Structures are given as C-alpha cells and as structure tokens.
Amino acid sequence: METRSISLESEQDIAVARSEVRAAAEAMGFRALDQTRLATVASELARNVVKYAGRGRLIMQPTEAAGGHRRGLRLIFEDSGPGITDVEAAMRDGFSTSRGLGKGLPGSKRLVDEFKIESAPGQGTRVTVVRWI
Ligand SMILES: Nc1ncnc2c1ncn2[C@@H]1O[C@H](COP(=O)(O)OP(=O)(O)O)[C@@H](O)[C@H]1O
Ligand SMILES: [Mg+2]
Questions:
Q1: Hey, which of 34, 74, 81, 115 would disulfide with 30, CB 3.0 to 4.6 Å?
Q2: How many CB atoms lie within 10 A of CB 32?
Q3: Would the pLDDT of 66 be above 90?
Q4: pLDDT tens-digit map of 6-24
C-alpha cells in the first residue's frame, strides 16, 4: 500500500476516511477487531478536523518498526484550524467545548499503540497515531 491523502471537509469525507482506513487495514492484514479500532479512530479524528477546523486532511501511511520486524499503519490528521488551548484538558474523558461526549481524543488514544497530538492556539492541530499488526 502506498501513502495516501484524503481531504476532510464534509460529513461524506468522514465516511470515506472511515471506510478507506478499514480497507487499508484489511489489505495490510490487520485482524477484524483492529480494522474496527482503526476505522473508529479515523471517524472520530476526521470528525474533529471537520467540526473544529472546517477542513484538513488525513494521511494514511504504512510503516515499519526499526529493524523491520513489525508493520503497522500510521494515520496523521492535520488541520490549520484554531488549535487547542489546553491539550491536557482536551485529552480528558468528557472534556468538550461543543457539548460533545468528549471521548474522541481519549477514546482514540486507547485504541492505538502510539498517539501524539501537536496543537497550539492559532496554529492548527496534528494528531498522529500508529497501530502495529
Ligand atoms: N482538530 C481540532 N481542532 C481544534 N480543537 C479540537 C480538535 N480536535 C479536538 N479539539 C478540541 O478538543 C475537545 C475534545 O475533543 P473530543 O475528545 O473529540 O471530544 P468532542 O469532539 O466530543 O468535544 C473538543 O471539544 C475541542 O475543543
Ligand atoms: Mg470529537
């Protein structure tokens, strides 16, 4: 699988991101439960991009651990939106500035092996996750 970029700006793009991530995970050999985990993460994080930044993109990247003994899928969600003032607060279960459930970020973190969020007010947001096979 090659690196792919999916633009995110509508409800439909969120659905596309979800199904493309599932298809990529399946093609790479992830088991069914992990395909669902990755699809859920894609849906939650793509939704955040559309909801809070208006637009952005998802980069899907097959990756290998150093030494090449395991393969995984890296997903990068990036936008140039308003950014997050308090990242630590945003990572807490139930924290939402939009009366949402506040589970998108913390829930996604629990579903992957690696989770990194880079964000600053006025600078946009980038969330990078990896799940290993
Ligand atoms: N891409 C983003 N740009 C700006 N703010 C974001 C972004 N993603 C998340 N946030 C902030 O982090 C909070 C928590 O996100 P999340 O856990 O997905 O919960 P919810 O979307 O239900 O509010 C959001 O309410 C929002 O304030
Ligand atoms: Mg959310």
A1: 34
A2: 10
A3: no
A4: 999 999 999 999 999 999 9
